[in-house]
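name: query_chain
kind: protein
chains: 1
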Amino acid sequence: MKNLIESIVKPLVENPEEVKIEAVEEDHQITYKLTVHKDDIGKVIGKRGRVAKAIRTVVYAHANTTENKKVVLEITE
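structure:
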C-alpha cells in the first residue's frame, strides 16, 4: 500500500525525497500517515481537497480488494 501511495504522490510534489509514509496498524484499521514538505501540502490537497479526495479514492478502492481492515489516509506537513 505504501508503494501505491508513493507512486501517486511523488510525481505531484517538488520535494519527492520529503515524502514519508508511516503505517499504524490497529485491530480493525490501518492508518497511513502521509507527510510531505510544507511547500507541497497544497499540491497534495488541491483546490477544495479534490486531489486529496482522488488519492483517497484510489487508495480505498485498492484496500477494499487487498485488505481485510479499514484503511485511513491522513495527510500532514
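note: The chain has a mean pLDDT of 95.
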